[in-house]
Known about the structure:
The protein is an alpha+beta fold. It has two domains: about 150 residues, no CATH class; about 40 residues. A hairpin with a 2-residue loop joins strand 1 and strand 2. The longest helix is centred in the C-terminal third of the chain and has 25 residues. It is globular, with a radius of gyration of 22 Å. The relative contact order is 0.13.
Amino acid sequence: MLDWQQVTERLERLRANDSEFKVFGARTRGTGHTWLLAPTLSADEVEEAEAQLRIRFPEDYRAFLLEVGAGGAGPGYGLPALSKEPDGWRWVNDGGDTQLGLLDVAALSHEQIEQEWEEHEAREPRRGDFQLHSAFNEAYGSWRAADDALYHRQFIGSIPLSHQGCGWYEWLVVTGPERGSIRVIGDGCFPVADSFSDYYLEWLDKAEAELLRKYAGDEESSTQPRDTALARLLGWLTK
């Protein structure tokens, strides 16, 4: 069982040592998680959200909501916060693709999604195959409608985790054969991690390493002795 208290302590150290937001996603052009976490949820709140959404969250994500935060500091520009809004429970600033009404429908595997996209692309109408321009327009319009439907279909049974930039989002699968795994959906659909805990811990490791590298780079370009923040970083990263 993962010690989420230890995760919280690592986040606090990162927040204390990255006041200039050197780590990617902490703050970029006015956006980013700024190392802050949304308040944790109570067990009753999590159960209420699950009942409304007709799902049960994977256990490690559930534990994160209860013990670390409902969103905030995390991969990319941060985790969208699960919040009770006037119209019910939803993820705030999720990019707009979350299919709240279809979370309980089995998600396709990433291989199925990729295959459907390949088959769809192969069916794109070609102008040279039609004698009449109107017939081509009608066929192309139907193909574009199918394109939109397939785009939305790939988010079924998944909840938003982070925006990586350039339209790439990472999602936690909550139904279907790949339940509990993480995938990225952008120009394609690819697996990222087997579980939320693996995904979050990998990000923590990378954030710590990135911050240390950037402090070290600053140090190399300075004539001043190693600053206190870097000394602290070296201390707790090499324990």
